[in-house]
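Reminder: ligand-aware prediction takes two inputs, not one.
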Amino acid sequence: KTTKYSNKTSSETDKNVCPEKPKDLLGLRLGNYSHVTKAELIEEFTQMEPGGHLRPQNCTPGQTVAILIPYRNRNSHLLVLLHNLIPFLTRQNVDVTLFVIEQAGNSTFNRGALFNVGFLEAEKFHRFDCYILHDVDMIPINDHNLYRCSENPRHFAVAVNKHNYKLLYSNYFGGVVGLLRSQYLQVNGNSNLYIGWGAEDDDLLVRVRAKNLTMVRYDVMTARYDMIKHKRDKGNAENPLRFALLKSAARRQDVEGLNTVSKHYQVLDIKLETLHTWITVSLNNSG
Ligand code: NAG
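Here is what comes back for the chain with 2-acetamido-2-deoxy-beta-D-glucopyranose:
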């Protein structure tokens, strides 16, 4: 089996186009949080093609989607995410490739830069139509929360159990968001300057709005997530500079982001595995 991406849009192919909304979606359901091993997932998900590519067998979706998952040392969370996400995406008829972007070493975690790296590295495989930026601990629990991109960037993780399934604050843009490829380029991706925890997601929303895009959301019933409980990660301390950085978000937007990330990273390894494409990068946070 080899991974194949169609280079035609669905309207150009004679194969039947997938319906925008599949009929057999489950709606709100319970997540599966049982312990699972990678071997068990590989055995269960025979529909996966190398590199973590999944696509419907009987129709062609209108978009190709890449899900980018920044990662370090959270194996059990990743396995639970995949255990839930792969069946969810299968039911949603998504043509999707899963990318894990692992920050190597002990340097402080930089979520924004990892998304930029994921975008650039994913583009070397395929120009995906839609990029979904996904935390490793966010489990979507309603199938109607369709993983596709639209005219405006979407905030997917609206209602999270940790916050009683309510929106945390009106400008919250964290957890899971989706942008068309063209939108990610337009906003110049994420900032690379947020080292440690906090506010890189707020910065992304500033960038979105500064380019006259609006954030869109589904309702709190649809856009529901369970967050896997965990303690603050080592190597991801709260960033004390985040408030100051956030103030200059719009000013920095065009000179710092996707267009400057290449000087911050080095790819150490890329593996096309069954469940995902795994990209290990070393980040040089000082550049
Ligand atoms: C906010 C953070 C944001 C984070 C959210 C949920 C700031 C300025 N923003 O307070 O990055 O996603 O909490 O944990 O710290």
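The first strand starts at residue 53 and ends at 54. The chain has a mean pLDDT of 95. We will return to this case in the review session.
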